[in-house]
Structure formats: C-alpha cells, structure tokens
C-alpha cells in the first residue's frame, strides 16, 4: 500500500500535462520564453583593456586642457572688455574737463584710472621672467651713493625698460612678444590721447589763435600728467631703484610715450605752427642760396670759419623722437660751434684759444648760420620743433647748458626772421 502511494507521487498525472500546455499558450509566456531579453547581453569578462584605459585617459586629459584653455581665453576676453570700457570712460571724462585758462592740474588726474587693477605679479611668463631677472641683477646695487649711476647700472635700467616699453619687431616669429602691464597701460593712454587730439580739425589760419594755443597746452599737460604718474608707479613697483636712476626712468618713459604719440603730437604741433614753419623754410632757402651768408648773418670777421661739422649735428634734429633728445642736439650744436673755433685757432701760432670767448651776442648769429646750412630738412618744421621743445623741457634741463642752448636757438630764429627784411629786402 505504501509502495503504491509512492508510485502515484512519482508518476505525473495526466492533468499536469494539460495545465503546462495551457500555460505555454499564454501571450505573456510566449514573450518571456520566445522573445528578446529585456537586459543587454554582457561579456562574461567586462574588465577594460589597457587600450581602453589609455583612450579614456587621453580623452579626459584633452577635455580638461580644453576647458582650462577656454577659461583662460574667456578671462582674457573679460579683461579686454573691462579695459576697453575703462579707456572709453577715461576719454569721456577727459572731454568733460573745462577748457579755460589758467590750466590747472587737478588733485587726481583723470588718467589715474588707467592704473587701476594692475597685477602685482605679471600674468605673462615672459614678463615675469624679465622682472625677476631685473630685480636679481639690481639687488646688489640698491645702496648707491653717487650722484650718477655707474655705466653698468645705467645700461641695465635702460635695457630693462626698453624691453618693457618698446614694441616688438614686426613679423618676428622667433619668440612671443612681451606683454608687460606697464606697456599695456601706456598703449591705452596712447589710444586715449589719439581719441582726444587725433581727430582732424579745421585747417590752420594764417596765425595761431588763443584756442589753438590752449589746445596745445592741454595736450602737453596731459602728456606731462601721465608721464609723472607712470614714473611714480614704476618707483612703487621697483622700490629698490636708487634716486640716481629716476632720470633714466624718466627718459625711458618719455621715449616710450613719444614712440606711440609721435604721429598725433607732432602732427598737432605741425598743423598749428604751419604758417611760421612755411615762412622759416622759405627764409632759410633764400639765405642758403646767397654767396656771402657769413657776412649777411652779421658774424664777426674772426668767427667766419667752416662750421660744417656743427651743421651736420643740427641736421639730425628732425630724426630725433623725444624733446629731450632734440634739446641735447641743440646743446651739442652749440658745443660744435665752439669746437670749430678752437680747432681752427689752435693750428695758428700766437693765438690764445682761452681768449676766444664766444659770447651770447656772438653765438646767436653763428647758430643762425649753422641752422641755415643744416639743410632744408632741418628747417622744414623748425617752429614746430622749437614749440615742442619748449612744451616738454624737462626739469633736469631747466638750468644748464641745455636751457642756454634752447634760448640761443630762439635768438637764432629771431635773427633769421630779421635777415630777409634787412639784408635781402
């Protein structure tokens, strides 16, 4: 009996086959057993290969580098937009200043805004290297006590600021151009100055009006203000510079300013002084064509010598960029006149060179003769050059041979203006 019951359990009942067959014909079961699997097929070994890891690492690295470059580029664009907005703000503020005499410098210059947000450390690697190299080379000489810096120190200072301010060679692909923050500020001032004074105005009249003179004085004062601000910022940025090096810094700033302002500023002076320039050019051309120019100029008989060397020195005046260089050229011309006289009489016996003192009354006609003989190029914009030297006479030249030479040039030009009316009628 027990055996029969086990056999009944082991043997499937016929109704079970019918139930299974019925379940297999259901639509859900057909989908489950016969349809595609809802889960994706996965390899038994899903460990990434070395090539997959390398490819994924390279992709992540490139994406991170691209993101970093994009962030730097966007930050640079934002800084450029901010600086352009700042430049336009300075231009608008400068145009609202009252233009009346006397021209007074405000306590806070409108150009001081250009120095806002200057980085303490240069952003460009090349500019950082130049600054670090300059600081390390000047540390040992920060305690100079002499009034004049040694030649090696002067060479280092001049070379450093020349590398900062002077423009790179056009078309040079050997190295990336240096972008120093001080040079960027100076170029921004050049754009401001060009926006204020570079627009073509009315043609000049036959004489200079008060408005023209006031316009020139305002332009000169703006250049003076910015130059002084730049020198102060340089002294703050490089506190180790000795007081004897300030003159070198002033010369470097002046040279950099007139590198960018030469076309606008010289054009402004030439446009205002064009009538006087034309008159002096015609007068010197007439005098140059005469045979007895030494006698016509009123030079004493003992000083009627050959002054070709002095004339060659003065002929370089138009090619010099800065007013300081032009004033130094006039001073060298006066020294050349004195040297020509001494060289001539040193070759003669019985003449004491020490007794040949050239007074101011003698020097004025001598310098007038040298100016005439310097050539038409030196006399084409003579009044403009003199006005430029007067407006930008440095304090270091206010007393000395440079100031005396500039005063003698004024006297020589006045002498030239009277010669055609008296001698040539």
UniProtKB/TrEMBL annotation:
Record GO terms (molecular function): guanyl-nucleotide exchange factor activity; SNARE binding
Annotated InterPro entries: UPF0507/Ank_repeat_27, VPS9, VPS9_dom_sf
SUPFAM superfamilies found in the cross-reference section: VPS9 domain (SSF109993)
GO cellular component, one term: early endosome
Domain VPS9, first and last residues per copy: 274-425
GO BP, sorted A to Z: early endosome to late endosome transport
Signal sequence residues: none
Superkingdom, taxonomy of origin: Eukaryota
Protein name as catalogued: Aste57867_25265 protein
Source organism per UniProt: Aphanomyces stellatus
């Amino acid at each position: 009996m027990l055996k029969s019951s086990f056999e009944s359990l082991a043997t499937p009942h016929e109704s079970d086959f019918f139930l299974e067959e019925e379940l297999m014909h259901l639509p859900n079961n057909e989908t489950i057993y016969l349809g595609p699997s809802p889960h994706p097929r996965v390899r038994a070994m899903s460990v990434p290969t070395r090539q997959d890891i390398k490819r994924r690492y390279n992709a992540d690295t490139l994406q991170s580098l691209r993101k970093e470059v994009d962030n730097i580029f966007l930050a640079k664009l934002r800084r450029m937009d901010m600086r352009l907005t700042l430049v336009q703000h300075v231009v608008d503020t400068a145009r609202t200043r009252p233009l009346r005499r006397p021209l007074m410098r405000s306590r806070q210059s409108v150009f001081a805004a250009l120095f806002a947000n200057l980085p303490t450390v240069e952003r460009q690697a090349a500019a950082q290297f130049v600054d670090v190299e300059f600081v390390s080379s000047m540390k040992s000489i920060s305690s100079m006590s002499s009034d004049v810096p040694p030649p090696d120190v002067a060479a280092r200072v001049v070379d450093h600021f020349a590398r900062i301010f002077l423009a790179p060679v056009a078309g040079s692909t050997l190295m990336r151009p240096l972008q120093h923050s001080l040079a960027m500020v100076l170029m921004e001032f050049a754009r401001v100055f060009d926006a204020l004074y570079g627009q073509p105005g009315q043609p000049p009249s036959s004489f200079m009006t008060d408005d023209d003179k006031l316009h020139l004085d305002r332009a000169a004062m703006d250049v003076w203000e910015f130059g002084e601000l730049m020198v102060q910022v340089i002294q703050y940025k490089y506190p180790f510079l000795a007081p004897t090096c300030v003159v070198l810094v002033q010369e470097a700033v002046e040279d950099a300013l007139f590198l960018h302002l030469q076309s606008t500023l010289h054009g402004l002076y030439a446009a205002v002084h064009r009538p006087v320039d034309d008159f002096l050019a015609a007068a010197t051309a007439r005098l140059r064509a005469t045979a007895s120019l030494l006698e016509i100029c009123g030079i004493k008989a003992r000083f009627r010598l050959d002054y070709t060397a002095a004339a060659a020195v003065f002929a370089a005046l138009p090619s010099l960029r800065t007013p300081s260089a032009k004033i130094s050229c006039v001073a060298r011309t006066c020294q050349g006149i004195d040297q020509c006289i001494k060289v001539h009489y040193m070759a003669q016996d019985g003449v004491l060179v020490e007794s040949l003192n050239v007074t101011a009354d003698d020097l004025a006609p001598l310098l007038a003769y040298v100016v005439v003989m310097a050539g038409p190029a030196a006399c084409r914009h003579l009044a403009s050059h003199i006005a430029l030297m007067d407006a930008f006479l440095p304090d270091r030249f206010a007393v000395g041979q440079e100031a005396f030479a500039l005063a003698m040039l004024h006297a020589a030009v006045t002498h030239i203006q009277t010669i055609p009316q008296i001698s040539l009628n």
